[in-house]
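Archive maintenance. Older records in this collection stored only the sequence; we are now back-filling the structure field for every entry so that each record is complete. The fields below show one back-filled record exactly as it appears after the update. Entries are processed alphabetically, and Sodium/calcium exchanger NCL1-like isoform X1 is next in the queue.

ARCHIVE ENTRY
Title: Sodium/calcium exchanger NCL1-like isoform X1
Organism field: Cicer arietinum
Length field: 313
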Amino acid sequence: MYQTFIKPWIEHVRKERELKGHLISGVLNHAQNDMVGRMLKDDGTPDKDAIKRLFEEVDSNSDKHVSRIELEKVVKDIQFGKVVDAEEAVTKLLQDLDVNRDDEISENEFVDGFTKWIHSNSNKTASSKSSSHGTHQTWEDVEKVMEENQSKGVSAWLEAIAYVVLGITMLSLLAEPLIASVQKFSEYAGISSFFVSFILVPLATNFREATSAIKEASHKKSSNTSHTMYEIYGAVFMNNILGFVVISILIYMRDIAWEFSADVLVVAIVCIVMGLAATFRNTFPLWTSFPAYLLYLLSLLLVFVLKDVLNYV
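Back-filled structure field:
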C-alpha cells in the first residue's frame, strides 16, 4: 500500500518541487541577464523598484496586470529544455504568482511573488555554496529526476505483497526464539518479563527510528519532517499489524488459548485516541508529544489493571 499509493505521491511532490524551483531560477536569471538587470540591492535584499520595472516591461499593454499571454511571451524566451513546455511552465508560474486566482497578475502580486522567489533562490544559492558536496543542477539533471522512480503499477503491488509475506514469514519463524530469549534474560537479570517485553524491547527495536526522527527534525524543514512522519506512521502500523498477525498464526497453528484480549484492546484504544488527535490537527507543537508519552505509560497501566486486577484476558 505504501509503495503503491504513498511513495509515488511523495515522489510526485518532490519532482514538482524540483521542477518549480528550476522554473523560478530560470525566470529570475532571464530577468536579471536579459531584461532589467540586477534585482538585488547592495545589502542583498530584493530591489522592489527593479521588480516594478520588470513588471512594466512584461505588462506590454500597460493595463497594470500581467495576463497569461504576456507571461507566456517571457517564458518562450527561456530555454527550459524538453522536460517542460512553455504552456506548462506558464501554468505553474501563474499558479504561484496569481494569489487571488483571477488569471491575471497585479503589480502587488508580481512584486510580492518575485520578492519571495528572490529570497528563496538566495537561500538555495547560499546553501549550495556552504555544502562541500553542492553541485550545479542543469536541466538535464531535472529531466533525470522526472524520469526516475516512476510508479510501477502491478509490479509495485506484487513487490509490496512480497515484502509483507516475507516479513510475516520471518517474524513467524523468529517470534518463538525471541520470546524464549526475553524470558531467559528476565530470569537471569532478575527483571520482570513484563518490563522487558513492554519497555526494554520496544526501546531497543525502535531506537533507529527514534534517532532518525530526531536527526531529521533537527533540520527544521517541513519536507524532512513530513518524510520522517511517513516513516514513523509506516513503522507503527506495520509493527502492530505484523505483530497481531504473527500472534494469531502461532495461536492457530499451536492451538494455544487466546490470552491477549487486554493487550489488543489497549493498543486499539491508544491508536484510536492518537488517530483522532492527528485527524483534527495539521501542526503538532512540542507540547503534543507529552500526551503521547503519557498514553504509553497509561497503556502499561491499563494492561496491568485489565490482566492482573480485573483478570481480563
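Update note: Residues 260 and 313 are 6 Å apart (CA to CA). The first helix runs from residue 2 to 35.
Entry marked complete.
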